[in-house]
């Protein structure tokens, strides 16, 4: 009995690695979403329009997406010791966050957001390489869900704590302290994370002895295009939430900063709770013999399809009903986020996980450019948020169809052929 449980559970070293990855995801998303929490204050201080604010909110994603789309991040992660590559990226993005706290002009803000994107572009390729190397199939749903929960709790607590602190002390101290304090994460990272260069993957499926798959090999796979397109659609929905939900609650719903912090935080936290529960359930189903294809695709397709109910949030005048639907849409989205990277890691295998993830995340995160700018343009043109919510709902629905019907089987690609 004890042996069986031990075999099913994670080892101490795996728990340590997973804990560090979860914390890094938590800090990653606080850093990329904190600008939206102080958006109205920064907009007023810089005297910029909603459209210009959309460009500032989307600046991060230009470098974040392009470094992955051009496979710079994936190549670095697959070629060198991931401990050093991820550590350098973490240092860069934390430093950019801290310096933002003293920026005074639009151009400096913009450049610092570009630097933030460069550093954070390393994160997801690193996650996929580490999980594909160190975690078996029936643990990847939970491991990915925990990391994704960290990325949702980050904006949740960042919105709550950041909103409350900014209302009392201003936005600049929050950026300074957050960036500087985050550097402490690097200490346990270099102590606990094992070297990977030259280490054979553990528990991974059989891999060809010669040469890892190339970017061209990956692009020949139809599944790679559907995972990238599906991620673009889901990221549009997610980045719409983390960049424009706080301003929407303040401007359209007339919430004060404290009330916005509570409801914005609750929406992100709902995704995190749903994600962890769904990741655990999906792994148990796979472990008991259910098809990974059926389980992973069902969670992805159903979660994104139900998340489209967010369209009703903007058209309901009743505040309580609108906030309940917002939470339900976020709970549904969590079904999807728990399984999307498990699909990619299984399809790619350990030797291609970094490159595939880099390409997929590069395409997917162009939505980080599109969602803030397009939303700002729609709000300026129409004078309200209804059209922006409709766009987010239609795009997330299209993404659900890609995951459900575009990917045939969730099993490792035979790279020999």
Describe the protein in words.
This protein has a single domain (12-193, 215-406), classed as Growth Hormone, Chain: A (Up-down Bundle). It is 79% helix and 0% strand. The protein has 21 helices and no strands. α4 (50-69) runs antiparallel to α20 (367-382). 56% of the residues are buried.
- Helix/strand-derived class? mainly alpha
State the CATH topology: Growth Hormone, Chain: A
User: Which sequence of SSEs, written as H and E, runs from N to C?
Assistant: HHHHHHHHHHHHHHHHHHHHH
Query: What is the CATH class designation?
Result: Mainly Alpha
CATH homologous superfamily name?
MFS general substrate transporter like domains
Report on the biggest sheet: none
| Strand element count | 0
Write down the domain tally: 1
Beginning-to-end CA distance, first to last residue: 42 Å
Residue-averaged pLDDT: 84
Question: Judging from the principal axes of the Cα atoms, what is the shape?
Answer: globular
Give the C-alpha Rg: 20 Å
Q: Detail the poorly predicted runs.
A: 1-7, 197-210
- CATH architecture annotation: Up-down Bundle
Helix content: over 70%
Number of helices: 21
Strand coverage percent: under 5%
